[in-house]
Fold these 2 entries.
Entry 1:
Amino acid sequence: MSQAEPWTVGRLLQWTTDYLKQHGSDTPRLDAEVLLSAAIGCPRIGLYTTFGDEPTEAARKQFRELVKRRAEGMAVAYLVGQREFYSLPFRVTPDVLIPRPETEFLVVRLLDLIKEREGGAPVLVADVGTGSGIIGVCAAKHGNCRVSAIDVSKEALDVAKGNAEALGVADRVEFVKSDLLAGVPEDVRFDFIASNPPYISTSEMAEVAAGVRNFEPKLALEAGSHGTAVIERLIPQVAERLKPGGTLLMEISPMIDERVRQLLEQDGRFEVRATIKDLAGHPRVVEARRVQA
């Protein structure tokens, strides 16, 4: 195409869609729209009313840099610094995992359980490995609860704290730097403990998408040779910190569902319930009730 032809919004989107498709993007058009709207500083839907407009040189320069990094494999969420989860905007950085739709199954179940307790004092929820804070913040936003958002990473806690403040729930969320529940005061007991722990095995890490493997925090992904190294440490801690009758909700890989259920049963302090399946029918959220002492 002739360089005399102006780089309008429409032309930029078409060229970039083709370019990102050639570089392996599964959603090239969506990626192009999100990146261009970020560079221009307008809502994505606004692009559709400005197809014939020509963005400024500064905006095009920023857009080119974003597209280049996307072609290298960096996720759009990291490039624009945000990902929507449970209809809420969450800030994300490479210090935290990008929120996945699968985690919404855990949040929905947690909120249902909290709702069953309506009418009393706020229940106590622990979000172990909070990352960007999606589980704890959603619980505080939509449920009658107080949340302890726990993570071993100070950087992740900073992101989660910013999200809690931006979404108006900072007064209901406490942030705790801790390796799982080890740093939580021993006398604290929770009604619910929710976690999206690392659950990818070392061998599986070599097979995950390059964008995940190269850019997302390994600490939040990999969990030993079987994918259960962190869960094996977490289960006995949960048993000590859940109130009798309290519930553990834990996101898992479908491949470790049977092993995780075995670990809970072997502990002897849990009633293991049916694993919640995702939209593809895969086991996704393990639920276990702490039996009466």
Entry 2:
Amino acid sequence: MIFKLLRPISWLVGYIKFKVDRLRLNRLVRRGLRIGKNVYIFQDVEIDPGYPFLIEIGDNCRISKGVTILAHDATTFKDLGITRVAPVKILEGSFIGQRAIILPGVTIGPKALVAAGSVVNRDIPEGKAAAGNPARPYSSYSEIIERYKEMASTKQVFDFIDIEQGVIKPQDITNALKNDRLIFVRSVPTKDPYYLNADMKEIRENARQVYKKLAPEKEQ
């Protein structure tokens, strides 16, 4: 009984947190933060509130939960009375993993990948995948894509539309993972509030087309 009463309260708290997060992001945009088309920014992304106008996020980028993007460094302020300020650019098609930290003066991509938890203090070249503290390139994005293509060709792939419509239930996914440690889900939700400046129909259609190239025999 208590859990039933707490459920709507929990939903309301989560909704309020989400709305506050989006309002904060909108304020940063009004203050000069540049965000391109079809950009995915999850909740709790910390974008430098002092210098948002120095930060640029290009088209089709994905920024995961808890990422920090800084355009200033106050390390020297106490002893020198100055703060280092430098622009940050996350260029088209790049992916930033959960809780990565992007420091001032960095350019990432285009089409680069930063692994979760990385600390980026220097540029990540186009098409590279980087990880660590400090982050260093360890592979190319294209090589990672090829590895995933190979895995996806032999693994079970669920369609997000089926999940939304209840055709595929959580237990079906759990059961699939009992037989195989890895599965995939294709496409994205019909509505996703974490996309900005986005056309969801276009994103879903693009996902369908690229999956069709991967597995034409499975795409109808």
